[in-house]
Amino acid sequence: MAFGDYPAEYNPKVHGPYDPARYYGKADVPFGQVKLGELGAWFSRRNKTPNAIGGAISRAWWRWQHKYVFPKRAGIAPFFQITVASMTFFYLINYTKLKHHRNYKYH
C-alpha cells in the first residue's frame, strides 16, 4: 500500500463508498469486551507495523472529525478539545524547565 492508496482489504463492491474512519480488515473483539485473561492474546493479534499504527491514528482523526467538526451544527467543543490538548502537550514538553520554578516551604 503506497501513500494515498486504499487499504488492501477494501473492496468497493462489498463495502460501498470508502470511509477513512472505518477499519476494513478482519473484525476482532473490541477492546472493551476483552477479558483480562485474553488481553495478551488480543495484543498479540494486533498489527504493530508503522503503517498499521499510522492507519489507526488516521482512523481516529477521521472519527473525531466526523463526530465534532463535520456536523452541520458543530459546536465549540472541538476548539476547546484542541486548546486543552495543546496546553497539555506544551506543558509536558516544558515540564523540565517549569519544575525548577516550584514554590517550596522552607519552614
UniProtKB/TrEMBL annotation:
GO terms for biological process: proton motive force-driven mitochondrial ATP synthesis. One of its GO terms (cellular component) is mitochondrial membrane. GO terms for molecular function: proton-transporting ATP synthase activity, rotational mechanism. It comes from the Eukaryota. The keyword Mitochondrion applies. The chain crosses the membrane at residues 74-93. It is found in: Mitochondrion membrane. Keywords: ATP synthesis, CF(0), Hydrogen ion transport, Ion transport, Membrane, Mitochondrion, Transmembrane, Transmembrane helix, Transport. The keyword Membrane applies. It holds the Pfam family WRW. Belongs to the ATPase F chain family. This is ATP synthase subunit f, mitochondrial. It comes from Drosophila albomicans.
